[in-house]
Fold this protein.
Amino acid sequence: MTTNNLLALWAEGRTRFTKLLDVVTENDLPKKLLPSPNSIGFLIRHIGDVELLFAKNVFHLNEVSVHAKTVIAQKDTGEWTNLNELKDYVKGSATILQQAIVKMKEEAWIQNITTKEFGTKTLAESLGRIVTHTAWHAGQIGIILKYGS
């Protein structure tokens, strides 16, 4: 398992999300699928927040500054309504997470890391967590786009 292979896996997995960003409009951002409390705008911001947290806390890119508003609030506050800002935010979070992945040495992927969120996993397994986190919320966005209001 090489860093380049894992980077390619992450990048491909993230396309589930990035392809949705191409079709989301600013009018879509407040849409929800009731009774779910989370809007599309919230979910986009949340994906970026968690990517930054992963870069900092899991991949130890210590220079990352993150104020994970969606994680702190633990609910949709209704403030995520500017599409350009959200797209810029998740573009930036992807760039930072990519930098964190690229800096990993091959032997690091089998080392364990422990977090309060998901316990002890290898770094490769932890990468699987962020890939599936993004895909999970991308699926929610897709369903809200189709059926939400």
